[in-house]
Design brief:
This protein is an alpha/beta fold. It has 11 helices and 16 strands. β7 and β8 (about 210) form a beta hairpin.
């Protein structure tokens, strides 16, 4: 499990000037005996610059910007990996892929998923008396016991993996029919309306496939309906609840956002961003009407934008990774350059989380697990080590700086082992480039005093974490594939297509 420094580059990470003072905040009265509810919303491939509160050029996130004004915005918040499955596994376990075994994405035909000996956040909160629900993209295994209903969620409604994965009549698996980079005469505004609609993608409600192919045009609204229904019914049950929402946005545009009715209207990506913002707004409005004072809403992303999709990808903001991109490579999703893992993040809990505060604390998706467990007054699983920290002090306006050290694993392609490719040490990154250089464009001088001072620290913290991993209980994910593992409503039909009726309610 070695880690090589074939050429070490260091970067100092700027905080963009958003250095608002951290306000003092006092709780209004004593903490209720009632346990808090939690709603975690995870956007897919959303760029740091896609949030208007982060990047003034973005004008399409009215509801999220309002949430930022009413809560806390994090400007130095990071995904635990730079692609889908590893990031989601870390959110639900608080552990890096080197520990939980999930180092790259699962496929349509994957037999396995998040290892069954890993304990999920849903399982921890179930044992603490919570009603748990998961809505949206799962992508942690769909075959057998890897299904969400067996991984700590009482209710599940959603798709098993990304909405551009699935069986097609022709030519086969995981074949997005849209061109990766539509340009000129093939611009995204002229794409066929059904560009991403011909995949026989299954939609689950609990263990049943209720539609295949799912109607992607109505998926966002269906998620909003199911989420608000869950919040209402869970609140009425008298039990605390956990709702985890894995959005389809902004992976690739959903049908209906590809061809705006008005050619002068927003681009397909901007139309999708507005649709996502509306969906989040509906969930937040339901919380405000139902359980506002006792519900903690956490919004963030699983990784940065998918640069290979060109104008169908999101905004990296100032994090251009110019040293990398000048050499012909991507610096966003599937990389450990800053835009690959720095993601938007908001915390909203009226009366608990102070309003209109910008935090510069170095935090991660890894922190969601231990923070929620602590706030729920539950216990962390025994016999394993965690890479996240309890960020409660930051959330409630305290002086905690967050992580001193954060690790970014490789996780962009099949076969990658989750090795810790990049080390963030306070304001520096090993493997990266310069001080106060958001574009990551110029390396520190290798002979400089700063370089010589930081490099030994980086090597030490890396050696320490690798030793810690070696002493931990490590899981191994099954990445074997078998076509029979493909979800299908009718195994007799190659394309797996059926019609079904939605169920209602949850257990």
């Amino acid at each position: 499990m070695g880690w090589l420094f074939p050429k070490v580059l260091l970067v100092g990470v700027s905080f963009l000037g958003f250095l608002y003072p951290l306000v003092e905040f006092c709780f209004r009265g004593k903490m209720r005996d009632q346990k808090p509810n939690f709603v975690i919303i995870l956007a897919d491939d959303m760029g740091w610059g896609d949030l208007g509160a982060n990047w003034a050029e973005t004008k399409d996130t009215v509801n999220l910007d309002k949430m930022a004004a009413e809560g806390m915005r994090f400007v130095d918040f990071h995904a635990a990996a730079s692609t889908c499955s590893p990031s989601r596994a870390s959110l639900l376990t608080g552990r890096l892929g080197l520990r939980n075994g999930v180092t790259h994405n699962f496929a349509v035909t994957s037999v396995g998923g998040l290892p069954l000996n890993e304990t999920t956040l849903g399982e921890v909160l179930q044992r603490a008396g919570y009603v748990t629900g998961m809505i949206g993209k799962w992508h942690l295994g769909h075959h057998g016991s890897y299904h969400p209903n067996f991984r700590g969620f009482d209710y599940y409604f959603g798709i098993p993996y990304s909405h551009d994965m699935g069986c097609t009549d022709s030519p086969g698996y995981n074949h997005p029919p849209c061109p990766a980079c539509p340009r000129g005469n093939g611009s995204s505004r002229r794409l066929q309306r059904d560009c991403y609609a011909d995949l026989a993608l299954p939609l689950y409600e609990n263990l049943a496939i209720v539609a295949q192919p799912v109607d992607l045009r109505g998926l966002a609204q269906k998620y909003a309906e199911k989420a608000t229904q869950f919040i209402q019914q869970a609140s009425s049950s008298g039990k605390p609840f956990l709702l985890y929402v894995g959005l389809a946005h902004m992976h690739v545009p959903l049908p209906g956002t590809l061809l705006p009715a008005d050619p002068r209207g927003p681009t397909p990506y901007r139309a999708g961003l507005r649709e996502m913002d509306s969906l989040v707004g509906q969930i937040k409005d339901k919380i405000d009407r139902t359980a506002k004072e006792n519900t903690f809403l956490w919004f963030t992303g699983d990784n940065g934008p998918w640069a290979q999709k060109c104008e169908l990808a999101g905004s990296v903001g100032p994090f251009t990774g110019s040293w990398q991109t000048h050499r012909g490579g991507s610096a966003a999703k599937q990389t450990t350059w800053e835009a690959g893992h720095r993601v938007p993040a908001l915390a909203y809990w009226p009366g608990r989380v102070p309003a209109n505060v910008t935090s510069t604390a170095l935090l991660s998706v890894l922190d969601i697990f231990p923070t929620v467990v602590a706030l729920a007054r539950a216990s962390l699983p025994l016999g394993r080590h965690f890479d996240g920290l309890d960020a409660s002090k930051v959330l409630f306006g305290g002086p905690q700086p967050g992580h001193r050290v954060l690790f970014h694993p490789n996780s962009g392609a099949a076969g990658e082992d989750g090795a810790l490719q990049t080390v963030r040490l306070q304001r520096h990154k090993a493997f990266y480039v310069t001080e106060d250089d958001m574009a990551e464009g110029m390396p520190l001088e290798r002979g400089s005093a700063e370089y010589q001072t930081v490099l030994p620290e980086v090597r030490k913290v890396l050696a320490d974490v690798l030793q810690d991993v070696a002493n931990d209980n490590i899981s191994s994910a099954d990445y074997s594939q078998d076509p029979s593992a493909t979800p299908c409503c009718n195994p007799c039909r190659v394309a797996c297509r059926c019609q079904a009726v939605y169920q209602t309610g949850f257990p």
